[in-house]
Amino acid sequence: SRALYAMGSSSRRSRSALIALVVVLLSCSLRATRCYAGPGRGLLQRRWLVAETVGLGASWLAAPLDALAAQMPTDQARKIVKSAWTILADVQERWPEISAKGNEAAMEEFLKAFTSGITIKGKVTIPPGESVGVDIEDRTIIGVTRTELGWLEGDTIETINGNFVRDEDACKREVGVAKKQGTPVVFEVRRVIPNPWVQFERAVTVSYSELDGEKEATEADQVGDQFNDLKNFAKLCAVGVVELPEVKVRLDDLKKELDVYVKAQK
């Protein structure tokens, strides 16, 4: 069934690319009438719909995703999808702060998450009496033996139980104090998420091929379309064509789709 999906996906993209080109050629004769943008998604000026179609058409004219995806190892694809999911979750959490800046400033910050890596902060809690599950050099995690706790290689420890730590000795000292007191060890860490978006659609295609029996998963090409849709609406929001809630809906939709992909990795 996955092989059939791959064949179908390529043919759909070829047809879509041709349709996009036809739309571009005809766009000069179209009047700026209002167009339906999808269920629950409001209305768009036709000129903006054409602009969005041009952008999607350009991506479809690139090399077929199924052929490119074959060159990407599964482990790499999973990491990219997980990184994308982490970034979306971070943006969701910060949405009240971002949206309070107004359309233009909010979307400028929002789009940064799709053009570069981001730095996020998080907490890892070790229950009393349990091992920390990592190897540390200075304050950086260089090895992980207990991934279920949420550690990732490359994490930088900033505080332990609220106390700032400067080096490896300080980390060991704070962990030792907590163990003597029989209390949980709470690490606050800084994590740099590299930019996953350049290879995102390829990674989703590889990941989808691994989701045998996962009926809730949306096909990879549709997830890619949702990603492009989110970026395009953010750009339109920045110039006042659509409003912030319409961007938020698309953010939530894409995050929900990736929830299924990430869940299947466990």
Topology:
Blueprint: H1 2-26, E1 34-36, E2 43-45, H2 46-60, H3 65-69, H4 74-99, H5 103-112, E3 118-126, E4 134-137, E5 140-144, E6 156-160, E7 163-164, H6 168-181, E8 185-193, H7 200-209, H8 220-238, H9 244-265
Antiparallel strand pairs: 1-2, 3-8, 4-5, 6-7, 6-8
Order of helices and strands: HEEHHHHEEEEEHEHHH
**Poorly predicted parts:** 1-12, 26-69
Q: Biggest sheet, open or closed, and with what strands and sense?
A: 4 strands, antiparallel
Helix/strand-derived category reads alpha+beta
Number of helices: 9
**What is the topology, as strand order, of the major beta sheet?**
3-8-6-7
Distance between the termini: 23 Å
Let me know the number of strands.
8
Helix-residue proportion = 40-55%
